[in-house]
Amino acid sequence: MRLSFAAPLFLLATWADTYGYRSGVHTRLERQAEAVVDGGAALGGLNHAYPPVPTFLAGVLPGGELALSGVAALFAGVLLHVLAERLVLRRVPLVVAVALLASLVAAPVAAYLASEALPSIAITALFALAIDGFTRFVIDKDTEGGFVAGLSVALAAGFSATALVFAVALAVAAPSIAGARYRSERGSATATLAVVLFPIGFVTAAWVFVQWRFTGAVPTPAFTFRGGVLEGFDAAARTVLGAVGHVPLYVLGAGLAAWRRPTSLVAYLAPVIALLFAAWLGAGYSPGLAYVLLAYTAVITVRRPENRVVTALLVAAATLQIALAWWSSPVRVPWW
Amino acid sequence: MQETPIGELLVGAGHLTPEQLDWALTTQRRTGSRLGAILVAAGLVRRQVLYRLLADRWDAPFVDVAGSSLDPTLLGRVTPEQLADEGWIPTRRDPDGIPVVATVERPTPAVKNRIEKALGEPVHLGITTEWDLIQGLHRGYEEIIADQASLGLWRRDAAQSARTVLFPAQKVLGAAFLALVAGAAVAAPGATVAAVMAGLSLVLLAGVAFKFAVCMVGARHERFETVSDEDVRALSDENLPMYTVLVPVYREANVVKDLLTNLGDLDWPKERLEVLLLLEADDAETIDAARAADPPATFTFVVVPDDLPKTKPKACNVGLYLARGDYLVIYDAEDRPDPDQLKKALIAFRRGGDDLVCVQAALNYWNAEENWLTRMFTLEYSFWFDYMLPGLERLRLPIPLGGTSNHFRVDALRELGGWDPFNVTEDADLGIRAAALGKTVGVVNSTTYEEANRAEGNWIRQRSRWIKGYLQTLLVHARRPRALVRHAGLRQVSAFLLLIGGTPATFLATPPLYALFLASMFLSPTALAGLFPGWVLWISLVNLLLGNGLMIYVSMMGAFKRGRYALVLWALINPVYWLFHSIASYKAVWQLITKPHYWEKTLHGLSTVAPGGAGVGVPGLEKQPVAG
After folding, report:
1. Which ranges does the record mark as transmembrane (chain B) (predicted)?
2. Burial of residue B622 (number of CB atoms within 10 Å: 0-12, 13-18, 19+)
């Protein structure tokens, strides 16, 4: 089933490949993998290995860039399947479910990232899972949700440094969501933060140690405030708000979350906070990433509409989003 | 002519007040139990008084079995199992040469006929109490019971017992493997060290990854309750089965008294509860303390003969021999089970089908916050019992039972052969044996609170015994690998190897990997390159880091699930705790070679915290440590 979700995206990548298109992201990962191998058996080339997971895949998978496109399609396929499963389990009407899923697959930028930008689609998938798990963990004390949130963010750190910013956004959101409970249960706020932050903290520290051990150099995050600190923040805020404007489903989802359970809005807004900091710090922000992250977050947090008005609003927002993606996208897809 | 009801007889004889009788009759309507059993269990009437009255009414003499000698030739004609099952015992011959048989049932012609058929000659029937019957059986068949408790499993199938540590084929294979490693070390020392290190790191990662994956499955179903409170409320007290509680105690004089309180809270009709206190013959202090505690009539003392092997499973086998319950559970003397645990276990059994032979309740600690070791122990138990075992159950994989709070179907347990007295983690072994024979073990959402070990040396002794037991279990069940795979299936066997073999292996692998980690901190990879190629070093370090990271995380989550938030950050020192495991594991290996069946005593009663609260160091609560 999951493969069937991934198949169209892989076919798209294959089609682009036969027309001579090479994904810039995947080509760069291939070069990095070659540089790691060139570093020799003592692994001195590890300083070229970040982000380690896609670089490792580029090094071991036969088939070059196309193989990475296959993995990207697989990630997207799994995520779409999980989303479809959730929509069915939440008894979302078929017409809404189809519109929501269409908003993810019928948008050129989403299809592009899902087939030609492994790190972006991977962290999108992982962030979406993390938000879902995080909400269950913080609000319902569902520890499986905590596992999913912590591990997803940690794994995302293997694909992009943006995960660090995202983890901080989740940590900031936690006390706002369950503040009342934290006040009544001594130590639960610290415990919640530990559960969310430990995996990514550990993975990052472990990677820093391994890289230092094999290369002698301590990797430092290449965070830069483009155009100055305050100006940079202003520009980042405008950029992210512009991206939010192109994802009407996300905006509608925020409204519905505020209406149903205001405290959950903080978790829902975590991706915006993360994108804002990523854009401000120059930590892996891209308009394509912003689009897919917000679009997938909107779908994974959708619940069964209470009435026909909400149903109609969801279908309308999904349709509008697809239209915007085709005619007013902030991202220029290479073959478009 | 209609008989006068026994209750009225007791009131008439002044042994009971009319109010007490009313209460007993109300209880009888609710539970369907015998009136006499209710009165005795409630302590309203002494057992002997009741049975003497019954003897008068049934026109038969009362036989004081506990106080009279037993004729071995008569006992030799029948088996203790038959006598326990049918509720009678031959005692002696009358002067006319006819055997006197004591029964706990009404001596009807049918009963008499059945007994005469079993003994092969006419008998005189007398009446005795159930307590006397058990004492008589234990005394009359002491040698047989002791022998059966020690060697029964081994006689039935030597390959299922840890009495022989290594079978010849295992010795040959082990020697061949060691020779191969030694030969390789001589021929190519560098490559051998590198290969061993890579192998150790893979073992560590495989063991940890398996546990983590199982815990994730357990976490996914954490909201699922095997038995809900509504289920318990819906369970009628009427016609509940007899439940036997085995409590092995050894040198635990100071906790025997607590036992009465802890078990007294169990929500189960007292007349359907049989508590067998398993005492050791050479432990006069605990025997005296138990007598002084003046336990209720539901308690029966069973003194286990003083011979080798002197282990808890042997005592439990004696208890199993005498148990009259349909179900059985083991508790330690200091255990505090949730009051509804027996009912939850019964519901789990009724839902679980005939193959379900055992359900394990969760264990946790009441003195978690006492010191760093009790905190770490609590973290470990929280993830093990709240994630790991439910995960194994969900995946239908073998479950190694925990030390106490395992509930059994008595007939199935007897069929399995009881506990292996030569295995020092007899509980884990029994869980695996059940799986190997196609039976299942489940878990039930009820907790028993215990005392966590607070002293490092004591902890290492206890843990070394557990790890030695895991190694014994591994060796026992790996004796017939093909048969094991055929019976249990490849999936079950793989899980068994990863769990029972993987656990000691990960602890044994930890020190060399920690040493490599430390070396890599101070020496550059080029300096280590002569011994470890870059990829070996990389794999070893990454596996070590990943393994420790996963175990820290799963420990954090276990504490979170239990609502013990203050313990969550303590999970960060899990790597130090693992070092203690490693020390214990090397001691375990050494003992497996030198003293394979030696039972390392664990001291109980070290805690300075009162079971009900957190009063560390509260004067008056301090207790003397005892061994058990």
Report:
1. 165-187, 193-214, 496-523, 535-554, 566-586
2. exposed
